[in-house]
Protein 1
Amino acid sequence: MEFKGRTWKFGPDVDTDAIIPARYLTTSDPAELAEHCMEDAVPSFPPGFKQGDIFVAGKNFGCGSSREHAPIAIKAAGVSCVIARTFARIFYRNAFNIGLPIFESPEAAEDVCDGDELAVEASTGIITNLTTGRTYKSAPVPPFMQEIIAAGGLINHVAAKLGRG
Amino acid sequence: MAMTITEKILAAHAGKDQVVPGELINARVDLVLGNDITGPVAIKEFNRIGAAGVFDRERIALVPDHFTPNKDIKSAGQSKIMREFAREHKIVNYYDVGRMGIEHCLLPEQGLVGPGDLVIGADSHTCTYGALGTFSTGMGSTDIASAMALGETWLKVPESIKFVFEGPLKPWVTGKDLILRIIGDIGVDGALYKAMEFTGSTIANLSIDGRFSMCNMAVEAGAKNGIVPPDQITRAYVEGRCRRPYRFYQSDPDAAYAKVYKYDATKIEPQIAFPHLPENCRAVSDAGHVEIDQSVIGSCTNGRIEDLREAAKVLRGKKVHNNVRLIIFPGTQDIYLQALGEGLIEAFIRAGAAVSTPTCGPCLGGHMGILAEGERCIATTNRNFVGRMGHPGSEVYLSNPAVAAASAIMGRIAGPWEVE
Ligand code: SF4
């Protein structure tokens, strides 16, 4: 599977309050959450944003709260995948569990500029910067995480385990 | 092979003699927690699994504490989903308004978590219980849904970092200041994916409430868990309180650590974390002139009885500054009652503070003290991200309870020694 889109670049330590402020957590409806995605971080987002576009961020993306509403909001907003130098640990788990593809790549996080067009090959984790022609590698996805993805998310994985899948 | 306390607890719950950092394990969980934000999402996912029921109705805790007593129709709907689920599955540990408290104050107090337990919760500050020598960590709703069905979860065994504090603390210095100092030094991702172990003579003499504050903020350094070796102070707290048998684990003297940090605790001063990250720490004496509009004392970091006593020491017989709203949130109903009995609540109200029923309230910008654009608040909470307590153009400064109380009196960030 390949993801292609424009880069929206963010700095380090983007926290879950920036991704989806707590004042909107009175709902868990993905479409409603998507409307407020990154509202405090980039007040102009999403004008200019197209379905399939890609977030690229610095270290510790998704730090803070355990709210799954954060990856849900990003996914429902139409972001195809997130690339960061590192991810906060709960966000990392949540993203896999709900099916938001994420890639850890310090090289890409450093080099890619806002507005660059990227192509990301999910199976190999190879990121190509179509604007500059450069390519970057991302950290391989642990085998257990691949199992979860293959099952179509954690819930399907558990259902299968309980013999109901 | 030598193991840390974190590794020993994980090994025991994975049915293994030994685990090593980096290893993926399937572990039995002793308790699974959800709240009114994460619970409804977990319940939706749980229902998709199609499980016959929850794995154990006594080992699930549901605490509606974030937007309760419900602030609006939508949040009432979220709480209702939890209440109905709790009734349907006969969840024993469901705490509704009037019986609830902030989850991380409530669970240890009610004896639901104990030394040697493995606890997971759909709330990042689940790491608080490490203060009792528990392995506890936050996860998302889907992970919690799966654990509610299976009674187990997968975990990667974290490397441990050891923080050794030696020497007595200066006056007005608390566990909160120690953890802020650490985060100031190592940064908000300084312990990413790791276990933080707090030891040394300072920690051995630190109260259980001080230990809760420290472990509570381990996640603010990116850690998976924070943990304090259990001792006599732990025993005094858990004896007669824990509802299940517990076990004290200790790190082996030759256990391996990714890093060891040593602190001379006698040199640490009360700390302030400036906006907008908990790592922006300075000593209160270096804070400069920062006027405030609001002061908040409470939360899962500092809403316990010792915190309220510290605040009362400063506030008794004084008046809150004309330009400041002081809001105080006891962590649980029992803490509230104890504070009433000790005359703390009266001292707060006479000083001009608003005292609230237990709730997360303004800590996450939920309700009961939201900040307007340009307003500044000092708070004993754990996060000062952009917009955390209200408008994205507002500011939050983190401190211990005595500093937050003194600042409320002075109308600017101030040390308790300034109002003595
Ligand atoms: S008091 Fe604040 S940090 Fe603690 S659980 Fe509530 S919202 Fe989260």
Protein 2
Amino acid sequence: MAAREPGGRDAALFAPIELTGRGFYGVVAILFLFILWGGVAYWVQFEEGLGVTGLHQPVSWGFYVTNFVFFIGISHAGTLISAILRLSKAEWRRPVTRMAEVITVMVLFIGAGQILVDLGRPDRMMNIIRYGRYQSPLLWDATSISAYLTASIVYLYLPMIPDIAILRDRLQKRKLFYTVLALGWTGSERQQRVLNRAIAVMAILVIPIAVSVHSVVSFVFSMTLQPMWHSTIFGPYFVVGAIFSGIAALIVAMIIFRKAYGLQGYLKPIHFRYLGQLLLIMSLLWFYFTFAEYLTGYYGGTPEEMKVFWAKFTGPFWPFFWGMALTNFVIPILCLVRLGRHTIAKVLTASLSVLVGMWLERFIIVVPTLSNPRLPFGEGIYWPTWVEWGELAGSFALFALFYLLFTKFFPVISIWEIREGREVGLKEVEERLLTYLPDGSEAELAETGRRW
Amino acid sequence: MRVTRRGFLQVLGGTATGAALIKQRLVKAEDAGQDLNKWATPEEVVVPSICQQCPGGCGLLVRTLDGEVAGISGNPLHPINRGTLCPKAFGGLQLLYDSNRLKGPLARDGERGRFRPVEWDEALSMVTARLSDLRAKALAHTVAILGGQYRGYRDTLWKRFAQAYGTPNYIRVRCLPPEKPALAHRLMQGVTTPLGYDLGEAQFILSFGAGLLEAWLGPVHASQAFARLRRSEERPRGRFVQVDPRRSPTAIKADRWVPIVPGTDGILALGIANALIREGLHDKEFVEEHTFGFEDWRDQRGEPHEGFKDLVLREYGLLTVSAATGVPVKTILEIARDLGTIKPALIIGERGPAYGPDDLHTRMAIHSLNALVGSIGVRGGLLIQGDLPLAPLSPVKQDEGAQRGLGQARIDGAGRGEYLLASDAPQVLAERILSANPYPINALFLFATNPLANHPTKAELARAFDRVPFIVSFSPFLDESSSMADLILPDHTYLERWQDDQVTHLAGFTCFSLARPAATPLHQTRNTADVVLQLAKALGGSIAQSLRWEKFDDLLRAGARGLYEARRGYVVSPYAEESLRKILERQGYWIPEFKSFDDFWEALGKRGAWWDPTVLPVSREALHTTPSRKFEFYSTGLKRLVDEAVKREGKTGSFVRALGGQDRGDLLFLPAVAVPSAQEPGEFPLRLNTYRLMSRPTGGGKNQPWLLEQPAVHVRMTWERWVEIHPKTAAGLGVKDEEWVWVESAKGRIRLRAKLYAGTRPDVVHIPLFGGEGPSANDLIANEVDPFRGFGLLNTTRVRIRKA
Amino acid sequence: MALWGMVIDLDRCTGCQACVMACKAENNVPAVGAGEAVRGRIISWMQVLTEEEEGHPGEIKRFMPRPCLHCDDPPCTKVCPVYATYRNPEGIVTQIYARCIGCRFCMAACPYNAKYFNWRRYQKEAPGQNPDVSVRPKGVVEKCTFCHHRLQKARDRARVEGRELAPGEYITACAEACPARAIVFGDLSDPGSDVARLARSPRAFRLQEELGTKPKVIYLTEGEGHGRA
Ligand SMILES: Nc1nc2c(c(=O)[nH]1)N[C@H]1C(S)=C(S)[C@@H](COP(=O)(O)OP(=O)(O)OC[C@H]3O[C@@H](n4cnc5c(=O)[nH]c(N)nc54)[C@H](O)[C@@H]3O)O[C@H]1N2
Ligand SMILES: Nc1nc2c(c(=O)[nH]1)N[C@H]1C(S)=C(S)[C@@H](COP(=O)(O)OP(=O)(O)OC[C@H]3O[C@@H](n4cnc5c(=O)[nH]c(N)nc54)[C@H](O)[C@@H]3O)O[C@H]1N2
Ligand code: SF4
Ligand code: SF4
Ligand code: SF4
Ligand code: SF4
Ligand code: SF4
Ligand SMILES: [Mo]
């Protein structure tokens, strides 16, 4: 075990890597149980076929597709938010970006995995490459998700290099591992410049890719002619939803690690207040899109659409629909409108609520349309089986495990960026601020500073 | 008319597609047995057969590859189905390959112990020993043979066997004998052969609860007629009215569904008669010239009798009728107007199960409408059937033992006393066996029937079976009844055996179908018809002499010789040829197609059927073989029977009592149905109706997964039985769709899933006859007997529903 | 080039399901069993749907047999990522069972729910099957093929006999069975054929025509008057 430098600055950031407590193993054990459940479930499904799920005619997509959309949505947490924050030079981003980026990478694996789990013939997966047919939105998905995954990994990795170098130099263990990954980082000015440029380029690059990912995910639905799927705003609607759930996931992750790793010094209420405000804005935006989507459907009033519409509003899906409205809109608004006291508790509540809500939203998009076919088949109900629950639990657990393991190898908060913030950030901000402001007397400036 | 080949084919199939299809299938049919697909490795042979999944009698083509069946399609030459089929026909594949079929004869270890497989020889000698022994003890009459729904030479064989052996107890367990004239037709017209409903030519069809498109005499034939009624090139769209408490698929397809209080059809018919007469819409000429008893009349002694007209006008006012039947006055009037104005109109009143306690008079009332609109003996109405000119068999030889046995009364009492008019009375069988009245039954044969499942007296029958020391079943399956047997001698299924079918109930033609085995028998089973011949041979003496054919096909061959020699009719052949012959025949020529009987027999086997399509112009008089040579609204035949019975048994004799007593006077002989007084709902407020699903084959179809999986389209159910309840009724009971409910009658209760179905009268619940999992409606149905048919009354039971 | 199509006369159709069972027997479509059936996994390439009387819920007005409509512009084929379902040059929309990855996108995209999935291994080699049609493994989608194998057989036969395929020589199992002769099958591109003639009937309509899928299964409504059209 590497000796800990007591009192070293940012010791809290190294702690999880250097020390592993009983809590960690406990958590891993629990996660393993869930993963085992998921594994057994998948094995059973592989042997028996998708018959072990609750899927049927006409609800041929259910949990897995819902989870796919949901997880891919979460993935927007990361890269997109971090990229936007970076590009907009929001200083408070510094302790946040890493966590966000990790979410993206980890969750993308899980998300893409959902599709594989959903396949009736996973053994023929490679047919997508052998016979790939570009007319199919599924192929667009495959392409843009791979692109996003690649870009996100790079985007995660680049800002990690200086930290890895720090770990290389600081830790005794895993020397080789860190050495290789650090790519000979010395922190020279030139390296620093190249890195900053690269990060900036990637940040610009990942934004359109991220937007494209969730647009094409939505196209899986909106390219069909099915009632309440065939909608032009599905692209932006899905992207907004994705960012919305992404922020919520990020907040939850931050709060967990803040508590677990004692990062109170880094993740301050202000961070949560800012993210909470972002969440609030997304909630409003989400509401706007939902409203627009359902209002147009309702106004058009074609019988097939209305069948699905009422199935959601008053029919068998009402608990899901209204649950979604509650968790995605009402609860976040109540929690976030005035973030005076108990910021963190409120933001956490809102975020958890949004996570549930966005899952419900995906579900309410996928299932009711399928269960209300155009022709008179009668409605099909759908309820997942233990296998699907297992996959869901396993997926979450796998995600959590990946994340947890990551934190055991790399700092969850970008050490060098924090340091940079301390060293150069302050000055930069002041300079930048000055450039925004109208030229005026120091007094006026001071006055302004005080008010804001 | 310029007759083109295509034209010919078109008429046949209705469409060119159909015609071409027929042509294509023909090639196959003609080439059956030859190497049609030389390039295919297995030898493909297409063998004509006969569907036995219902009494429809459709012709099949069975595709076989090296003797294994690989598909079933309709025989395009067959006049009944013209290449088409119904869903049940395809279930035949699964019936044949059912893995639960019995693989060979089974006998019991000890007294009803466990079944063990036995060799055929041993099994047969067990039966012969038993039969010889009983005959030696002068107990031949204590052997009873129960037969199900079949006809043709299998019936002939059993009948002959019973007569030669010496038992009067050959009892058929069914309520619709299609090969016999309907009782109402017999009584009102005196006919001795069945009348055919000319569905294909009718322009208006009024059906009182005949499941035309689902069950009845053959849904394929009826569907074709229906399709013609709906859309054909030559005539305007016809009309179709279905009277049924349930909005059956047939009722859905009808122009009008008339939901009726079950059992009140006679009253409705008389109400319609009332409206027809009142509005002067009846066929006055026919009524005047060809009917008896319409107007008031005086008998030889000069006593006045009320005629049908006055009776109907007096008793069956539309308000009364409407109140009793639940049918609005307006509907009655509209039906009457349609009937009076659309010609030819056909009124069907011969559904299988009874119409309730007044069944005979109900059927008479319905049939009287056919007379009122003059539809008897006209195209599109009721037609006489020609007899099949099968070679007559030599008379049965009866030794003394046989005569002694046949001299005994039947165990079920059919043909005497209160069951004077019934040919079979299975309903009383259980009670008679249990009370050994008039004698105990010592051996019971079960052939193609499963009364322990299908009869309302199933519980009593089960107890009765316990009393019978020797039960032999010929079922290919272990069903409720065969599993009570001491010995099972499994029959081939219908695709594996020689068989015939004789269809006589179709209007305009008679038809004899012949099938040789299509598939190589899968198991150690034997055609029961062959087994009967073997038993006869083993019993020897006059029995062997009466049934001296080596194999069943010898008997078929012997009978078919008559067709060859009749100098009429044809082995079915492509339509072009047939039409040519028809034209010639109209001009008085009949050209033989075959040089020898052997050629004829060969062709019959290859094409599947013989028929006589020429409609003999039968005069209306010929249809009225009553003493008055007229259609009798007042049945003098029934009057004579009653008078004789009174003479024999006195005024309180059982037959008279069964008819409702002498008090009814003339009403006994007229189609008069008593209008019931309004009933309090009481403890059991709902009526129970059981009906046949289109997908349900006779035998139940337990072993036919395709049919079990999608039994119906009007409700979505699968594999499992259900009870249909009107949503309003269900709401009152707090019952939701697919919930479990108890259906309770005074007799018992069963648990079923409720299906809400708006297509019904709210006061009737319906349980389909269906082979899927679940309890039997016969556990609810009261044991009431209809003395004229000897069968149970199946739609009089009242029930209540409770959430389970 | 032929364009195969079907006309179904709803005035004639009695909802008997002969077409349904004929299809199962012809195409080796198995019964899935009681447990699977209640879970809604019945495979029925041809399915008889019921339409309700307007304003009278639960009162069935007519029966509507629904095979795959073999859309001329099929939404199902476009979404298939691996070319496992496609429209062939004669308009038949077919499935390649050996290639399908079981993503069920085509099922979600078919506006007529004409596709069915093998949720488990329902199909096993069994006696009584039609050797001309392959048995499907678990995990793939299947649907009505217009009895495509019959076309191949008819073609083969015509070729061996050295002649052209005659009209009506290729007909589907459901059309062959239908006792009411409600189903007419044939070449829509031959203006003289029965299908083409009936498809021009004033009674003709297509399901969800507004979707622009151009189904080649055309329905005829009820109506007064003479004649089949
Ligand atoms: N598919 C199929 N066909 C069959 C058979 C089969 O098992 N399956 N069995 C054959 C045999 S053995 C027979 S006997 C025949 C029977 O043939 P059908 O008599 O046609 O058969 P059911 O279905 O019993 O009755 C027909 C209709 O009568 C209705 N009904 C019941 N009570 C009344 C009433 O009081 N008045 C009126 N108007 N209607 C009433 C029922 O709701 C039902 O719709 O079918 C034969 N054909
Ligand atoms: N509730 C109610 N009950 C009814 C009726 C009703 O409408 N409602 N209808 C009544 C009527 S009309 C009738 S006809 C009866 C019918 O009742 P059943 O006479 O019992 O006739 P199936 O149901 O046809 O039973 C035929 C049996 O024959 C056997 N079997 C099948 N195939 C073969 C074969 O190839 N050879 C031989 N030897 N045996 C075979 C099988 O064991 C099968 O169970 O049901 C009556 N019961
Ligand atoms: S109507 Fe009867 S005989 Fe004809 S195919 Fe159907 S089940 Fe067979
Ligand atoms: S077979 Fe014909 S009549 Fe029967 S359901 Fe199918 S299309 Fe309709
Ligand atoms: S009906 Fe459905 S499965 Fe058939 S071609 Fe059209 S979209 Fe494809
Ligand atoms: S389920 Fe099969 S056929 Fe359908 S879209 Fe996916 S790969 Fe193509
Ligand atoms: S065309 Fe062939 S595959 Fe399609 S429903 Fe009809 S029988 Fe089945
Ligand atoms: Mo019957």
